[in-house]
Design brief:
It is a single chain. This protein has 72 residues and is an all-alpha fold. It is 61% helix and 0% strand. The chain has helices spanning 4-13, 18-25, 29-36, 45-54, 62-69. Helix 2 packs across helix 3.
Length: 72
């Protein structure tokens, strides 16, 4: 997992703007900026999906997904 500052540095190092990355991944750029400033908790929903896409959070394992969704 990466820290907020590591993700921001990766954007800068690779010459990719946060807005461009957001558009390319279908996320609202304002929400991505909030996450990178540490203003969103990223516990569920879109902020959670963004955090996973950024590498800030790890995706749930298949076993965890099954438990949460009731799949067998």
């Amino acid at each position: 997992m990466l820290s907020f500052s590591e993700v921001r540095n990766l954007f800068e190092t690779n010459g990719v703007s946060i807005a461009e990355w957001s558009r390319d991944h279908g996320f609202p750029s304002a929400l991505v900026y909030r996450i990178l400033r540490g203003e969103a908790k990223c516990r569920r929903g879109e902020t959670h999906r963004i955090a996973i896409a950024l590498g800030i959070k790890e995706p749930a394992s298949e076993e965890q997904r099954k438990l949460l969704t009731g799949l067998k």
